Amino acid sequence: MKQIIYSYRLALFGLLLAFFTQSCAKDKNGDRLLFSIDQDIALGEQVAHTVDSTYRAKGQLIERNNARYAPAYQNLDLIVKRILNSGQVAYKDEFKWDTKIIKDDKTLNAFATPGGHIYVFSGLIKYLDNEDQFAGVLGHEIAHADKRHTTKQLQTQYGINILLAVVLGENQGALTQIATSLTGLKFGRDAEREADDFSVIYLSGTDYACNGAAGFFQKMEAENQGGAVPEFFSTHPNPGNRIQAINDKAQQQGCKTTPSGSGSFAQLKNNLNQ
């Protein structure tokens, strides 16, 4: 028993030493984070595994090896790949960037774990009008992972010691709590503004309308005047006039704002509706 405790403390000391060493250096975003990129990846893998298990137990995780939904994932991966290949995603090669669909037609939401695991609810996919809007939303979620907003928020909420213990596999309770809280994890307005900005920046390197996210927010605001706040707005607070800000960012970038006309998203929606 003493040997186990000693080994755990030694491993924790190693992580803390790495943390203090790496926190002195800036990451690719110019930030000094308490977590290293490797720790982001390790935490993300554990959280994603727990998220998968949770929604799998509910019968809501659309599995990638399900032949019925293979065309949906082929089209989803194609859209994600276009964004990642824009040349603007800082951690394109380090993070896994796997995207999964949760079957819940009543939920208009998406979320990202550390390390680039993205989850999209079927309700959001079916709600959107075109691929450019969807690419805008994906760009927003990719930015949350790429700019390490999720890690920063978890670090604030749980503290560095708990997160390091989760990375070590020593706090299953905290891991479960983190995984189940991600759908309701609320970012600050600065993080939301940056995610909106980088959605434009990412899409500026593609054939998509770089202000695609603006169309999504415009639709949501128009259809929810005075009504219940959609899940996406409750977890992604409005940093101001985000529609105008996205369009202003697109003008500043000088990127195209005409729809791409790509049919990948329509095929994705059709497959989910079958």
Automatic annotation (TrEMBL):
Domain Peptidase M48 stretches: 75-248
GO biological process terms held by the UniProt record: proteolysis involved in protein catabolic process
Cofactor(s) essential for the protein: Zn(2+)
Residues covered by region (Disordered): 253-274
Entry-linked Pfam families: Peptidase_M48
GO molecular function: metal ion binding; metalloendopeptidase activity
GO CC terms: membrane
Cofactor note: Binds 1 zinc ion per subunit.
Signal peptide: 1-25
Keywords: Hydrolase, Metal-binding, Metalloprotease, Protease, Signal, Zinc
Similarity comment: family membership: Belongs to the peptidase M48 family.
Protein name: Peptidase M48
